[in-house]
From TrEMBL:
Record's protein name: DNA polymerase III, delta prime subunit
Organism phylogeny: Bacteria, Bacillati, Actinomycetota, Actinomycetes, Micrococcales
Domain of life per record: Bacteria
Pfam families referenced in this protein's UniProt entry, alphabetically: DNA_pol3_delta2
Signal sequence residues: none
UniProt xrefs under PANTHER family: DNA POLYMERASE III SUBUNIT DELTA, REPLICATION FACTOR C / DNA POLYMERASE III GAMMA-TAU SUBUNIT
Amino acid sequence: MTVWSDLTGQDDAIAIFRAAADPANSGDSMTHSWLITGPPGSGRSNLAYAFAAALLSRHGADGDPATTRQVEARTHPDLAVLTTERVIISIEEVRKLVSISQFSPSVGRYRVMVIEDADRMVERTSNVLLKALEEPPERTVWILCAPSEADLIPTIRSRVRSVRLRVPRVDEVAALIERRDKVDPQVAERAAREAQSHIGMAHRLATNDEARARRDETLSLALGIQNVPQAVVAASRLMEIAGDDAKAITLERDAEERESALRSMGVEAGQAVPPALRSQIKTLEDDQKRRATRSLRDGLDRILVDIMSLYRDILLVQLGSGLPTINSAIQSRLDEVASGSDPADTLAVLDALAVARRRIAANVAPALALEAALITATRQRRTTP
């Protein structure tokens, strides 16, 4: 096993990073700042941490188990990570990271700085990072992750080496899920297909019965919309589903964080929090509330993506494309809806769903954005039996 073993569908990118991390390589493979781009679910952060583990290891480009465990736990002394549960990364967070980047590595070959979701920096914050990238210490390496190069300001793009990830094939994701999560091949293939090769989502669908049930209900609700009142009711229920999904993701993590924080403060389980420590717990709770808001919006986006996959399948059937459908488990229902509706109306629904995603990302009230998209879907059903 190497640090690259659990990555899939990114052989070209792995080759680049492996060559850069090889201590025996004295060529132009290594640089002090990197940008990993790719669509959601392509494994940007996974590859970033694999590269970090390889750079921090003294045993070569394939890493070693001890260093890999420390990187996975984010406890390696020469690794600094910036990830945020907020909509944007604050300037204070970047200033702190830049300050840490000035120190020499203590045990590894490099000091590695990872910024997940680097696209969440506004221009003023990006300029703070820019100064660090212009004059980095000799043994500091920056690894930024973002959906695309266009999400960063041009001056930062000019100072990083960009590596673009591709969307893994369904069979590649299925093989990874089957091997890593020890699930049935058919379950892994269906999860990878319905997740549209999103590795994290495929893992959830393959290993979490509740996640699968929520997705099935989402599609059933979308297919059942015949009129405006039903669209409004469906939107309300989808909001509930997104909320349940967000709670499932955050609830256990919140409890673990609170328990860990109290333990680090010396507060026993069940013991009242001393007044002097309450402000720290309040800060933690505020961060968790912000994360819950983001998780809800992420859940709504996943719901919209799933519904878009449904109408994409319907459109393929209507056009007689012969291409495989994402939701083949309900193929007969897809055929039924496709035969009773018009491709132009299906395209209008897809457009409305895309607009809803943009509106929610821009902080429009999610319920209103969702209702507007689903009401458009009622037109697609005017001629459905």
